[in-house]
Structure formats: C-alpha cells, structure tokens
Amino acid sequence: MRLTLRPHHLLCRLGFQGYGYSLEFIQEMKRTVELIASGRVQNIIIRPGFDDICLSCPHHEYECSSRHYGPRGAAAAEFDRRTLRALKLKPGYRYSLSEINERIAALTPEEFSRICTGCEWQSLGTCARGHLALREQHFISPSRRTRRKRSSGLG
Ligand code: SF4
C-alpha cells in the first residue's frame, strides 16, 4: 500500500513516543507509525502541506493554515524544506519505504539534528535515538552484529 506524508513527518515517526498536540493527533501519528512498522507500506508519496497527521492536529486551521500562517506553520514548512534538501527528495514523487529509510540512515547525526533545529520536541532526544537505531540497522556490519549478539547472550 501507499502512504502520503509531508516530508518532515518521515523523521518525526522515528521517535514517536506517544506525545503530540492533541489526542486525535496522537492517534493519527500512532496509526501511521504502526502502519509503517507492519510492513504493509511499500511506497510513500511526498507531499509538502497537510497530510492526514496534520488534519488531525489542532493547529492546522490556524497557526499552520495558509490563511493564518503563523510561526508554527513557518517552522513546519522550513522542516519540510530541510528534509527535502537533505534527503534529495522531490515533492509529489513516490519513493519506496526502503529507499527513504536508506537515505535517512545515511544522514549523520549532525545532519539529522540540523533538520530538526527549532522543533519543540527535539530536546526529548527520541527522534535522534530513532535515527541512530535506523543507522544501526543499515550500517552495522554482519560481523559486528554477531559479536554484539554474542556479548549480549543472544547469539
Ligand atoms: S503543527 Fe502544523 S505541521 Fe505540525 S502536525 Fe500540526 S498542522 Fe502539521
């Protein structure tokens, strides 16, 4: 199946821990995270502007809407621009989830942190930890993985 997401939500979902702007927002973010984790999402269409997560957010009719474009909307648009630039994604295009995950994993922690600069959730550190976990999945060599398993008693 396909999912449509605004660019910076590709990163937010990595560190989601049940925080959000409202109950509806949290439920929609949780649904998205679970859907991606289920393995049923093969492709993601990148669409700047509101996605289903935004439509469940209490800010979308005011601070983030085009009519009342406030600081929160401007910040969200900037996070989108940074995400598109850093991951070299084109708005309106469809990408496989695995390709997107590879591009995110290829970011250094510093690059990841620069995209999120200014986000009110950044200080929680959960997105950065989610990014590191994704990097580990992609870049830990099989021999290191085996050593880790042995030392943790899993191998
Ligand atoms: S704050 Fe704005 S960009 Fe973020 S989820 Fe809410 S409507 Fe979307």
Q: Can you walk through the features of this model?
A:
The protein is mostly helical. It has one domain (2-151). Helix content is 53%, strand content 7%. The protein contains 8 helices and 3 strands, in the order βααβααβαααα. The chain has helices at 9-12, 23-37, 52-55, 71-87, 97-106, 109-116, 126-139, 142-151; strands spanning 2-5, 43-46, 94-96. A 3-stranded mixed beta sheet has the order 1-2-3. Helix 4 (71-87) packs antiparallel against helix 6 (109-116) and helix 5 packs across helix 7 (126-139).
Q: Reading side by side through the largest sheet, how are the strands ordered?
A: 1-2-3
Domain count: 1
Secondary structure: helix percent: 40-55%
The strand count comes to: 3
Please count the helical segments.
8
Secondary-structure element order, as H and E?
A: EHHEHHEHHHH
* Unique bound compounds: iron/sulfur cluster
> How far is the first residue's CA from the last residue's CA?
35 Å
Principal-axis shape equals globular
Major pleated sheet: 3 strands, mixed
